[in-house]
Input
Amino acid sequence: MTFDIFVIPFFGGLLFLLTVLIIKFSRWIALIDRSGRHKIGSGLFSLQIFPATGEVFMESLLHRRMWKQNMLLGYMHMTFALGWFMLILLGNIESRTYSGGHLNPPYYPIFLKFFVHDKRVLPFELNTLPGFFRFTMDFILLVVLSGIALALFKRIRSKWFGMKKITRHNAYDQWAIGSLWLIFPMRLLAESLTASVHGGGGFLTNSLGDIFASFLPVDFLSNSAYIAWWGYSTVLGIFFVTLPWSRYMHIPTEVVMIYLKHFGVKSGKVINSFSEIEMRACPRCGICIDACQMNSAGMTASTPVYFLRALRDQHPDPQLNSNCLLCGRCQVACPVQIDILDLRVASRSNDNNRIDAAYSYLPADMPDSKGINVLYFAGCMGHLTPSVKKAMVKIMKAANVKYKFMDADGSICCGRPLNMAGMYEAARSLMEKNRQIIHASGARVLVTSCPICYKMFNEEYKLFGVEVLHHTQYLLRLAEAGSLLLNHSGLSVVYHDPCELGRGSGIYKEPRKLLKRLAKLVPISEEKEKSLCCGGSLGDFSLSFEQRMIIRDEALETLMAPSPDILVTACPLCKKTFHDGTDVKVMDIAELVAERMDLPEPEPVAEEELAF
Amino acid sequence: MKEVSRFGYSVSKDRQIDFDSNSHEVARKVAAAEPSLNLCISCGTCAATCTAAKFTDFSLRRLILLVKRGEIKGLDREVQKCMLCGKCQLACPRGVSTRNLVLQINRILQTEVR
Output
């Protein structure tokens, strides 16, 4: 016997699922732009296929990043993914031992225990092939069931799983979750009831079957078993039919996304076909909620998981799009590594991109810059905290650097604030002016004090022949070359990683190396890629002043925990924001350098020369 | 008139706010989208610190005043001189979300009023 009518909900659901997935993915991939499709074409036949497959195994099955986040969370996800995968794989092999190696219809291995009642082996007999399979299959089922128990427990005690807040799922997802949770208990029930009537089964199903048989009549068990198989098939069918529009769409989508990313397909500046794939790769796990400072400031609705939901459901909400600090903490935490910031900015381009920039008034040359090596750019924010630019000028004079202060007398913005608003066209016209000024100066190095400008010049400008450095990098270079002689202050300092410099540009090492020459650097709980945003971010357009202060004060709590003498940062905007919120001295790293340098020449720079 | 300007002065054209022809619609819409519009006391700190004002006569203070008065002619062009750099937002003593204000004025002038 290899067919029974109860397999239809499962089999129909499976066929439906496969059809929908094929249609959806071929549409998305067909809509990827030409260069992206070319990358996919060449990627499929490149060596990239191996690391990509490796990542699929590590992330989609083992859930390595989930393990890193929390052991229980990792185990829970692994039991579902790897456990179910092993049940399917081993179930297929097992079914072939009964069908003489022939290819079976897809439902046959799933419902094997209904079709085959093998009484030849005892439940704990491991030395025969059928016995081994039976034991292993029962063992894996037990492991998966333990995962479901944990998933249920997570609803009550999410803290055990390292999560303070969990996602509030919509009704549709709750249906999908319910059907998934029922699949494996139903399988256990069906297999056990069958074992109670016909014998067979492994250590788990056979023993449970014996218990049933001990107090229930055979007729009843036989009928219940058949109903349980129907139930098992039905929940599988419901799960498959709901999957393409539920959170579990992340299972196939994440796999596709990992391959595409390895082939070099990137998220664009507007919402495109690859964005559609990325937003569906989001499993709504909610790990981003705790990471997001919007959550602690009482704006949980703006956290990435809900932003992505609005995007996916095509309910774009300008408020949701604009209420994000673009600090990047979510992206570091995201176990699927979705480019959340790119998606957020891309979503803004629909809201704001109507601007037709009117920047024809801007100048585009750099007078008096003959023979200079370094062009210094303080940036708009740098001008609001003049102590930073004064310190930089003092240092460069002391180190005899041939420099020109590009925006000594006011500046053109670098364009990143416009980019953050999704107004790329407007940003481009600013960039064009700046590019002309920079190239006209003849400088080989561009040093910026503001990490926002640094990220922009470094990533978007493509300045040929000009090295872009943040002042932390440049000052360390001067110190290491011996152009600056620094003396240790003996003070204890905490270093705050600015979002745009740390997570945004990956510069963690240089400021720390530099600081260790100047002071005693005290570690804090949230630093480097986990660093908190100061709340001043130019990335957010809808926070009120008061809301920003809540975020700032929360960050200050962490930063001030070790009671440092000075809070040091490397961003004028962070400095300005923190300055108003604490009595502890807040300094830019450049100020500390300027204060602790021994001038190599006997005559110090005259004060008048430093005034602006 | 000519004689006065020779001394380095000029005389403003006689004008008054004409609420018969001006409309408060834009101001209402902007305030709904960014309520901190109503916190503004027109002190001019924003204009004093403005990056764009270094090169042009752009003034957020004037822009806000004109929006509030309903004199919106030409403002759709004027608002686009802003670079969104955010200096005014940090300088503002009233905590006005100036960057969003500019975005919202721009959006409303472009899409909702014509």
Q: What stands out?
A: Residues 5-21+47-251 of chain A form one domain. Chain A touches chain B through 39 residues (CB under 8 Å). The mean pLDDT of chain A is 91. The first strand of chain A starts at residue 374 and ends at 377.
